[in-house]
Design goal:
Number of helices: 6
Number of domains: 3
Shape: flat
Mean pLDDT: 80
Distance between the termini: 67 Å
Radius of gyration: 24 Å
Structural class: mainly alpha
Largest sheet: none
Length: 183
């Protein structure tokens, strides 16, 4: 009697989870193209990423000191806006590159997206594990807030960079293989 109640309880739980999973999958199928941007945003992203990154790095390294510093050596009113605009143009360009539809968006492309996302997640997990293991073994931690901030920025950007690279390389290799088979 007790076993039957136990089994019934978990059978009902399994059925509820299955129904919710099916509803979730239906919802995901409906929403999968709703959050993707039109294809022309890819070109905009490809322009914004290097522009923002180069300007931000040049400003941080001091190569634009004539523009962003006054004669006393203090930052003038252009320093912060240049850094903010360049950094966010890099991030927005990266967003455009990650969340853009392909010319022919189908279920196969969605599966490649999912696989790329899974592998990027796994790589980020390995990165965090190795980084914290390194910190534990060698007693090296990011120095103050700036070090921690840089560590987190690198971890976030490496995730999306690996995702974009994996997705585009996989797509390129599949298209190349398909073209070779047609020839």
């Amino acid at each position: 009697m007790i076993i039957c109640k136990f089994v019934n309880k978990y059978v009902i739980l399994y059925v509820n989870l299955t129904l919710h999973t099916e509803n979730l999958l239906t919802f995901i199928k409906k929403m999968k193209t709703a959050i993707l941007l039109p294809y022309y945003f890819k070109k905009i992203g490809i322009i914004l990423i290097p522009f923002g990154l180069i300007i931000w790095c040049l400003t941080q390294l001091g190569y634009l000191n004539d523009v962003v510093r006054n004669q006393n050596g203090h930052a003038n009113s252009l320093y912060s806006p240049i850094l903010i605009i360049s950094f966010f143009s890099f991030l927005i360009g990266f967003y455009f590159l990650v969340f853009v539809k392909e010319k022919q968006e189908d279920e196969f492309i969605t599966n490649i997206r999912l696989l790329s996302f899974q592998r990027a997640s796994f790589l980020q997990f390995v990165y965090f594990f190795l980084a914290f293991l390194f910190m534990l073994l060698f007693k090296k931690e990011p120095s103050v807030d700036a070090g921690l901030e840089m560590f987190l920025i690198i971890s976030i950007l490496s995730f999306w960079l690996f995702y974009v690279l994996h997705f585009n390389i996989s797509l390129f290799l599949i298209k190349k293989k398909a073209n070779e088979e047609q020839s």
